[in-house]
Amino acid sequence: MQSNSSTSTADVSALVGRVARSDRAAFASLYQSTAPKLLGVVLRILNNRAWADEVIQDTYLKIWQKAEQFDAAKASPITWMVSIARNNAIDELRKHPAGRTTNDDELDQMAGRQPTAQDQVEDQQTVTRLNQCIDQLEKERQDMVRLAYLNGWSRDDLASQFGQPVNTVKTWLRRALQDIKGCLES
Amino acid sequence: MSERDDLDLQIAEYVLGTLPADERNALSARRAGDPTLDARILEWEQRLSPLADAVEPVEPGPEVFAKIERALDRDDSNVVALRRQVSRWRWSTALTSVAALILVAVLTFQPQPEKAPESFVAVFQHNDQQPAFLLTVNLNDRQLSIRPVTAEQQPDKSYQLWIKADELGPNPRSVGVLGDQFQIDREALSQYDPSLLRGATFGISVEPPGGSPTGQPTSPAIHGFLYPTGDAPADTSD
Fold first, then answer.
1. Where does the pLDDT of residue B189 fall: very low under 50, low under 70, confident under 90, or very high at 90 and above?
2. Cα dist. A98→A93, A101, A164, B120 in Å?
3. How close A157 gets to chain B, by Cα (Å)?
4. How many A/B residue pairs have CB atoms within 8 Å?
5. What is the ipTM of this complex?
6. Are A173 and B16 an interchain contact pair (Cβ–Cβ within 8 Å)?
7. Residues in B touching A126 (Cβ below 8 Å)
């Protein structure tokens, strides 16, 4: 994705604005510059290329339809698109309860997390700030938040992996989210 | 924990993805008609989205975009365009709501040379409440007709038809007040260009007898349902 790493937030915002006016060329450019990111996000959640491709198709159709509702004052364009993709992927994942095998690879992926040379999701400062806030949580809660957000693990998945009752997982997650919010606002 | 905190954490879990399916679906459904909720979801998405930075991009196969383009071509973009018109109406009509309002959005086509004029009609209803209308417009002669689907006359109320288009400024403009039998002057749109009509949104509001006293609809539009129709406008019996 080197070729697209220079696509700035402002560029993506401008493209979404043109898509809102039914500009198919802008839509193609938007797809080119963002689809690899969105597919990465979706594939990590679904672990299944065929499902992921379908979710990506559905996601871009929604982006086409909803572009006019996008409000740059309320969200960055890539966050907005990633959120549509994640929502679709999680909805799809929950339709296949048996289709998701949680495994240690995913935990290893968590452990091996490193700052990436990623381009467009957020500016690096925001990424660093959020990671600092998450790193202040207890280790298990850090992993739970990341496994849920990045890999689409449900409360049940987390409960069995971490050997805790589902209600405890719920409490831990909510406490973690509250702490993250407080930390970001401090 | 306060109720507000509880809702905030429910929203946070929705964004995180761990909300159980029933709660998740309920929140999704509410979101469409609740701008405050939508704004709070966006806030949480913004908070957590830097996590996605850790994900490596994966190049999609060329067939994926080809399928998307085919879907858009197939869709003819009409449903899309219709949704846009509705949202434009919704977001730009800042009016207080008292009476139930029914928004009727109509998308008209230039007829194919060999075919009778076609119309694509959508009916929008407030909170699933009755009544509803179908409105058709023939772009060739700019004749309109309106017919009730489940609409009934309400005592001491009038239905009023509105048009809204970018070219006409930010506010809806009255087309006319419907008569006792839901009739309206078929020529009421003749002053407008077909190109304007093609992009316009139409609304119907419930007003005091004789029409809105303010010159603007007294209630906003919220929800809509599509009623596709292949009927030629006006006098087809069915």
1. confident
2. 9, 7, 20, 42
3. 10
4. 154
5. 0.89
6. yes
7. 50
